[in-house]
Write a structure and sequence with these properties.
- By secondary structure, this protein is α+β, with helices and mostly antiparallel strands.
- The chain has one domain: outer membrane lipoprotein receptor (LolB), chain A.
- The chain has three helices and ten strands.
- The chain has a ten-stranded antiparallel sheet with strand order 3-2-1-10-9-8-7-6-5-4.
- The radius of gyration is 19 Å and the shape is globular.
Length: 221
């Protein structure tokens, strides 16, 4: 939480490209759709999207892909950002192990949502042991997103861009209740960090390092 707060305060603006691809196979036949998007973020809550190209099914574009963009903009609002936080307010955490990989060391946590918010999920997360940043999340939504959906599996991955961790890949696989399956992937690239808030001079004796994780409390009081 402390590391996320520091990075959130420092990151003021960025831009990047995204490629969305959706495949559906089921009782309504097989359909696919794609969209290339330029995204810009300005702190604390502004996201704008410019659609560069569209391809495939107009039905999937209008009713799925464009709605994803609207939902992401909605999630930036203050009342929804609280629901998105990876914190003890929203989740119960259990350390289930560690992983040592060529790309770094990770704490592996089981996460269980404390409520049925559509922005929360249950499953596992991988936390970078050096930066205390979430590098990967895998599981299922805490609340079924639609009556038409019987089950959804999701995976999110983040990568380090300069000093910040930003999304690099998302995939969701959805089983449709009436039969069929939809697979959505989002690839992120071409990040440009355009605004950074540099901290001012520290007082004598003030440390720039993170506190000991054991000392970080979920209770602000």
């Amino acid at each position: 939480m402390a590391a996320n707060a520091q990075r959130s305060q420092a990151l003021r603006a960025y831009s990047g490209k995204r490629v969305y691809h959706l495949d559906y196979h089921g009782i309504f036949g097989s359909h696919d759709a794609g969209m290339q998007v330029e995204a810009t973020y300005s702190a604390p809550d502004r996201k704008e999207f410019k659609i560069l190209s569209e391809s495939g099914s107009k039905l999937l574009i209008n009713h799925v892909l464009l709605k994803l963009l609207s939902s992401e903009q909605e999630a930036q609002q203050e009342k929804y950002r609280k629901e998105l936080e990876i914190s003890p307010t929203n989740y119960d955490f259990t350390l289930v192990g560690t992983e040592h990989t060529p790309s770094g060391d990770f704490y592996v946590l089981a996460v269980r949502p404390k409520g049925p918010s559509k922005y929360l999920y249950r499953g596992k997360m991988w936390v970078d042991a050096k930066d205390f940043a979430v590098a990967r999340m895998q599981g299922e939504p805490a609340r079924n997103p639609s009556l038409w959906v019987s089950h959804t599996e999701v995976e999110y991955r983040w990568g380090k861009v300069g000093e910040f961790w930003l999304p690099v890949y998302n995939q969701s696989e959805t089983q449709v209740r009436m039969g069929g399956k939809a697979v959505l992937t989002i690839d992120y690239s071409d990040y440009q960090v355009t605004g950074v808030n540099r901290p001012g001079p520290r007082s004598p004796g003030e440390s720039s390092t993170l506190p000991n994780p054991a000392a970080v409390s979920a209770d602000p009081h």
